[in-house]
Amino acid sequence: MTMTAILARVLRRELQLAYRRRADLVNPLLFFLIVVTLFPIGVTPDLDKLAEMAAGVLWVAALLANLLSLDLLFRSDFEDGSLEQLLLASTPPTLLVLCKVIAHWLVTGLPLTLLSPVLSVMLALPAGAVPLLMLTLALGTLTLSLIGGVGAALTVGLRKGGLLLTVLIMPMFVPVIIFGTAAVQAAGDGLPWAGQLALLAAMALGALVLTPLATVAALRIAVGD
């Protein structure tokens, strides 16, 4: 079997397992929807003020929604022993881990990105900034999943590692939020945004290359390999 076929099977398996845990998939989307929906009610109904805060609100809500499912990324594999088999497989573990993270993004980050245009209307985000919002969220949530994979690997052996996971990875999430929010705000104000987008893409590319290596190293520590 070719490497591509193996990775395709791993990705399909992860998506099937995620589908069986439908409640875990819906929770981040519901959280994202509830936070953004309640924000105009709890803060201000003024459309001008909402438009100024729209990018930040959407990005912070997406980050928090992403955090809800990160703790489960490797936990089931750790509990049933398949995590050790993953690390001992003939296929490079970095590619297998990357498949798991991409599957996580497909069932969390991508739905959040697709839902964002609807919610941006509630926050009066200028229509011209919506395509850039979707692009930055797609890149940003992928980066968050990749970085979050490292934290999930470090805390996979802990019974209640959710809080520690948040503390570990939150500082690394901050630059992603800063540049993602800045790009959308600049687009809404009619200012240049290419620089912020380029930095966000660079962070996504760097995370794509480096985090699988760090995640595998953390998993080896967790299983005592």
Descriptive tags:
225 residues, 83% helix, mainly alpha, transport
* Strand content bin: under 5%
- Sequence stretches where pLDDT stays below 50 over 5 or more residues: none
Q: Give the tally of β-strands.
A: 0
Count of alpha and pi helical runs: 10
- Shape, per Cα inertia axes: elongated
Question: What distance lies between the first and last C-alpha atoms, to the nearest angstrom?
Answer: 27 Å
Radius of gyration: 18 Å
Topology order in helix (H) and strand (E) letters:
HHHHHHHHHH
Structural class: mainly alpha
Strand count, sense and closure of the main sheet? none
Q: What is the arithmetic mean of pLDDT?
A: 85
Function: Required for the export of heme to the periplasm for the biogenesis of c-type cytochromes.
Family: Belongs to the CcmB/CycW/HelB family.
Membrane topology: Multi-pass membrane protein
GO molecular function, one term: heme transmembrane transporter activity
Q: Overview of this structure, please?
A:
The protein has one domain (about 5-225). Helix content is about 85%, strand content about 0%. The protein is built from ten helices and no strands. The longest helix is centred in the last third of the chain and has 30 residues, at about 195-225. The model has no long low-confidence stretch (mean pLDDT about 85).
